[in-house]
Amino acid sequence: MGIGLSAQGVNMNRLPGWDKHSYGYHGDDGHSFCSSGTGQPYGPTFTTGDVIGCCVNLINNTCFYTKNGHSLGIAFTDLPPNLYPTVGLQTPGEVVDANFGQHPFVFDIEDYMREWRTKIQAQIDRFPIGDREGEWQTMIQKMVSSYLVHHGYCATAEAFARSTDQTVLEELASIKNRQRIQKLVLAGRMGEAIETTQQLYPSLLERNPNLLFTLKVRQFIEMVNGTDSEVRCLGGRSPKSQDSYPVSPRPFSSPSMSPSHGMNIHNLASGKGSTAHFSGFEGCSNGVISNKAHPAYCHSKHQSSNLNVPELNSINMSRSQQVNNFTSNDVDMETDHYSNGVGETSSNGFLNGSSKHDHEMEDCDTEMEVDSSQLRRQLCGGSQAAIERMIHFGRELQAMSEQLRRECGKNTVNKKMLKDAFSLLAYSDPWNSPVGNQLDPIQREPVCSALNSAILETHNLPKQPPLALAMGQATQCLGLMARSGIGSCAFATVEDYLH
Amino acid sequence: MKNAVIGNNKQKANLIVLGAVPRLLYLLQQETSSTELKTECAVVLGSLAMGTENNVKSLLDCHIIPALLQGLLSSDLKFIEACLRCLRTIFTSPVTPEELLYTDATVIPHLMALLSRSRYTQEYICQIFSHCCKGPDHQTILFNHGAVQNIAHLLTSVSYKVRMQALKCFSVLAFENPQVSMTLVNVLVDGELLPQIFVKMLQRDKPIEMQLTSAKCLTYMCRAGAIRTDDNCIVLKTLPCLVRMCSKERLLEERVEGAETLAYLIEPDVELQRIASITDHLIAMLADYFKYPSSVSAITDIKRLDHDLKHAHELRQAAFKLYASLGANDEDIRKKIIETENMMDRIVTGLSESSVKVRLAAVRCLHSLSRSVQQLRTSFQDHAVWKPLMKVLQNAPDEILVVASSMLCNLLLEFSPSKEPILESGAVELLCGLTQSENPALRVNGIWALMNMAFQAEQKIKADILRSLSTEQLFRLLSDSDLNVLMKTLGLLRNLLSTRPHIDKIMSTHGKQIMQAVTLILEGEHNIEVKEQTLCILANIADGTTAKELIMTNDDILQKIKYYMGHSHVKLQLAAMVCISNLVWNEEEGSQERQDKLRDMGIVDILHKLSQSPDSNLCDKAKTALQQYLA
N or C terminus of chain A with fewer C-beta within 10 Å? Predict the structure, then answer.
């Protein structure tokens, strides 16, 4: 009996190891056969009842065997890729059980893999970076800084640049502008986002009709969702759940913020504003305490509506922002909480307690309505006027699409995008429809990053931050390694290095 | 001072010469010193101790240890840690006698109590214990003060250093100590048994030092009888881990320790020897141990050469030890070892190395391989192993002599082709010399080798042995306190007294003394085996032509033979019977008189009785003897 490996096309009528591209360990003499009729003394003989294991190491292209759980040492080196496990039987009546892992192996293969994983990781950790006079550190700092700037974390970027003696290439005002636009997009307030972009970067969207189209399609979707400003001012109330921007699972895709972060930042902000209300709210659970609305009222309401704490938190935080950023307060309540809170509190410090007081009642009212509407999400927030506006907007979009086709030729991407968006109207409950995922706030991210990149390009800045580029590069490399059969990529993933 | 001496051995020496140590110790012990000052003093002393061995000696001369131990009674943790750090450095130095830790009986319990204070006290105290625990006495002291319970939970500490030092503690505590080992197997830490924790620590992604030390713990527990040799944690975890430690990828130090530990683990168990012999080509892997310093290292890198040279001896002796264990029982493994590239040459070369350690290991290895009849006849002969062996036997330290002479016993077996040349090179003198050694093991081996030598030997050799040994020495050996020596001496006598001409010749010259000795032993308080052997000697004497008369004229001896014929033990009855049988054999001259004399003594009656014996052997012998009377 011979146990081993063969490439495709090797003669199946002979024991593995005897022919070219075939390798085997034979039980009768314990020899190993490396594509040759003559064997080399390798290990013990094996017979009925023995468990023989064969392990191919795709990192160093070697193979070793095990007998009853004991490693017999390396049998073959420099193995070619694409080998198949092979068992050759010579004696009539021989029987073999094959185990490809469906049962636990006798040999501790997990332990062997642990060793190799450690080896590969050590290799990565010790990779020589050819550091000359802090070059490496400077480069890392630049990557961090450019990432912060790219996503508009201006206060952090500023602080980071200051402490690492770097200059920020982009002007602070410009970063803030981009940040503002991004916030609007991520809040689903596309109309305002488009308007602001046109104000700040007058020719940008003219020169990028496809981008404008993408933005408009998104605006249409947000109208359906009830989040776009144009439908909201028509009395539509958005379901809270649609509005609260979830934590992004992709850490580098947008400046989203986790609820726990929001909580901290918010507490800081409220501390600056007026701390007088703090004590009265200790009955409320954690983040809620800084809500400056009428305590008892709010409290009972929250309880009855089962709102969770992070949500409340974000609401509160958004309120502190709106004061600075926007003049029309009535619609801004629940929207801005994913912006970079640190920037606002530390660098701008614009908290204005007195002006906020006016909106406290409204805050609570908003909450109330949101709670009830959460139970039944309605098209465009349920307002007839809003629906009409949405239909009208849809027609404009159709016209724009046709115009685009005339001017720039057919564009399947645009066509599909529009078709998908319009499909939302075919369902009574678009959120639970097969095309409902378009309404997911996470879909705002690609739109947001496309717009951000376009703006950056007009300033001759990179479309993507170098950090994201490096990550993409590393991920691609690992994929390429896998396709090329370089085994060590199995023990190295980019995620392992992102904490 | 602290900043001046850090990393600067010269400055350290200067300060010591200038008398800084007594002053620092004074400040450290002064009641009025602030804790900050005391702590700084301990830190500077610790830094001085980090220097050369001479520095440590100077510190010891100033009685630093009692002062620091006194400091441990302080309530200030920082100060305690500084004292412990300094103590750790001093106790880990090879110039410090570890006994100093045990002179004051209150120290160990206090250290045990300090184990709970911080991760630093844990690290330093465990390190002190693992360096100062030498031999069963120390193990017992530490064990009785609760070392196992106090240290066990440190194995799960968050600090790697603490885990590592705790592990080292257990390896020294368990070594050759059944009491500690038996306790360890049942200790639970966080719901897990200690052996399981050790097994986790030898996983392949753990640091090598940790894998190696936990493998040692499990090995020692196994050798002390606390873990069975067929337990999975030995067969599938410890053994493979130790084999991996022997691989080329490991550092030279790790390879030495790995091989030595593995040799110890598998020494008494043939199944473990078989598994190790097929694991990862271990036997071939060990051949690499002889390739240091390599020719490459000599040319390319002087530092590497130095490093290789330093470890070359250690590597060779470790490999020999492991080969010795591997080949202890299994003939196939021995064959595999000898067939490894140039192995016999290497071992033979090892016999004449300057390092005692290497020579000893090489002799052990050869001794293990010499248990093979086939190898004795082939490889041992081809490589003239006896030559360097005879050389080793001249003026070697006892530990080498014990193994080498034991191997000589094997080489002197009658079928060994080395027997002749060994005799010619003066082995008789040498072996007779060994029988006078203080060391019982050497006496046994000496007399054993002589016994083997005398087996079916020619008259000349026998005469040589007797002359060289002298009857005085022979009698001394017959009254040796060591039973083994007595048995082998009787064996020698029996081998000397075989074939009729030899018997007569020897009895004619030494008859009187031999008869005296035989009487003495038969009268003495000895076990069955000794008496049987002695009766066999008498039977041999009775087989002689003239020698017979020495028995027939000795009524005392005849009475004794008669007594043993009626003994309750069959073996003794048989031996006495052979004796009688030889005396009454009627084809020989004077058989009639002998028969008559023995009949008068009542022997025939006994023979009749014995011919009815349920023991067929005895019954047959009695019948044969009676027939002699009938003829």
Answer: C
